[in-house]
Design a protein that fits this description.
The chain is globular. The model has no long low-confidence stretch (mean pLDDT 96). The protein is built from 6 helices and 9 strands. It is of the alpha/beta class. It binds iron/sulfur cluster.
């Protein structure tokens, strides 16, 4: 596989935020979001066998694992990696995906944390609609918001597709240099939707 980096840290996103986690960041992405903060992952990466990644996970002693990117579902071996991490003892394997690739390839026991790209990302329209049917009760859907237009767009998407109740959580996460979290919090209170404000916990802890 092509790997950008691997490390242990506190999980900063999703309903698993706060949990010690082993991360493997796969190389390569098919999008170019205006706010991308993982430029490293868009490079070629280093070649790595699944067995070596699993060995590193075992050595880390972390209870859960996350496969992220870049876009991890660009690599055909990602489902096999997820299955291998589960077999190696990971209580959960999160797969963070940008929503463009079919999440139906993921093995049972994984949790998809799937982006739906909003207009402010510069990549609106990239979402693969087949993923609405693929969504499982334990998966999570994330909207990264740059401004009020993104918020209104995301609320309309959530309502149109009745996302609340179809998955474990709907997450609204601000691009903090564009949208102050307290402003998003106010909008969420007004909207009275069962969606969750997500801040990147690892960043406030100064962790990767
Ligand atoms: S999908 Fe993620 S890794 Fe790819 S460009 Fe967008 S923010 Fe960056």
């Amino acid at each position: 596989m092509k790997v950008a980096e691997s490390f242990s840290s506190i999980q900063g996103e999703s309903t698993y935020a706060g949990t010690p986690c082993f991360f493997v960041r796969l190389a390569g992405c098919n999008l170019s979001c205006t706010y991308c903060d993982t430029v490293l992952s868009r490079g070629a990466g280093r070649s790595c066998e699944i067995a070596a990644i699993v060995e590193e996970f075992r050595g880390s002693g972390m209870p859960i694992a996350e496969i992220t990117g870049g876009e991890p579902l660009l690599q055909e071996e990602t489902p096999a990696l997820a299955a291998a991490l589960l077999a190696a003892g990971a209580r959960t394997v999160l797969v963070e995906t940008n929503g463009t690739r079919d999440i139906g390839v993921l093995p049972a026991g994984t949790v998809a944390v799937m982006d739906v790209k909003c207009p402010g990302s510069g990549c609106a329209g990239s979402f693969n609609p087949v993923n609405l049917d693929r969504l499982r009760r334990h998966d999570e859907v994330k909207f990264v918001l740059s401004d009020r237009a993104d918020f209104d767009w995301a609320v309309a998407f959530v309502k149109r597709h009745a996302l609340v109740g179809r998955c474990a959580a709907v997450l609204f996460s601000p691009v903090v240099i564009r949208l102050p979290p307290e402003e998003l919090a106010r909008w969420l209170l007004e909207a009275r939707l069962l969606v969750r404000l997500q801040l990147q916990l690892h960043k406030s802890l100064g962790m990767p």
